# Entry
Amino acid sequence: MELSCKLFILVLLLPIAARCSTDSIFQECGKNFSISSNSLLQDNINNAIFGLLTKTALYGAATASYGVGTDTIYGLTRCRGDISREICSACILDATYKIRTICHFSAEARIWYEYCFLRYDSNNFLGFLDTRNTNVWYTSHIAADPVNFDQAVGRLLETVKVAAAAGDKKFGRGENFVYKSNITIYGMAQCTPDLQESTCNQCLDALLEVMTRNCKYHLGCYVISTSCVLRYEINDFLFRDIAPSPKA
Ligand SMILES: *[C@@H]1O[C@H](CO)[C@@H](O)[C@H](O)[C@H]1NC(C)=O
Ligand SMILES: *[C@@H]1O[C@H](CO)[C@@H](O)[C@H](O)[C@H]1NC(C)=O
# Structure
């Protein structure tokens, strides 16, 4: 069901994406523990998650740790770079509820949404590259002019990758008009906020390889992993700019 929703996003237009956005795309729980033997860990998870929620509302992304010694919980949030602070906060709020429901008594959890990502772990992962849980979605449609299309996608993704790695929000976006086929390709790349430029580049290079293997000549492709995401489509799937609401 989640997959078909994602495919719809790629094939159809933005209103569908907005409708699907309240559902998570993917989630992973690990390192189950018994609450009776370790209630401190559960407290630290709750406190870390609460800290992330508060910090994300203020800054649009967050890293946090809570506790001492082996019961410490580390966490982070990432929001897609084109969305408003309000949508970001709402998305992380959904993520905190859902993760506590589905990853009950897990010392490690990750959840991906269209607009945001939340992760916590009892190991300190902050700053480290992690390409586990790489998932790919793509449209079944193939470009009418595959060679030109593929070159245009390659150039676009290189641009957004460099922008993401060097940028403050670790987010890069761009578009590329393919004159011969009269289509515009839209793309984005993003790493989690804890990564350095070089680690972010490494992460996106790994996803580029996944794309090349799975999506060559396809009109849309979306790859997610723990540390970064990469996507292109022929629909303008990103928000333009975060302008204040127009006056009546
Ligand atoms: C861990 O807990 C989750 C949710 O309670 C459960 O679905 C999963 O099977 C458990 N995994 C292991 C390895 O026990
Ligand atoms: C190119 O695409 C645009 C929008 O899809 C369309 O309005 C225009 O007529 C197209 N131009 C050509 C030459 O096909």
In short: The beta strands are 24-32, 62-66, 73-79, 106-113, 116-121, 135-138, 171-178, 183-191, 221-224, 228-233. Confidence is low (pLDDT under 50) at residues 1-20, 243-248.
